[in-house]
Design goal:
Layout lengths: L3 H26 L7 H37 L14 H6 L7 H4 L1
Length: 105
Amino acid sequence: MPQLDTIKTRQEAHLAELNSETADIDHQLRQPYAKDDEERAQETEGDEVLEGLGNQALREIAGIEAALARIEAGTYGECTQCSKDISPARLEAMPAAALCIDCAD
């Protein structure tokens, strides 16, 4: 498993990217609609997609923030449900993983 400093740095960088992405989405969603009905319908569909992407990013932000809190608390890599170690391969694939593979199933 990479060192915690490396994981923390990567997660903080990813968090900054996601925060920027959600700010961009929020800005786009606040734009006024076109007056033309057909264009407005297309914009509404686009907004639904943006809202979905924004919600997904917000869930990922929450996971990263929780992982960073576990790093600070010294519990990163421990399953939050059963307290067993999360496998290094799982943490490599999902650095914000809070559950071991058994508890995630």
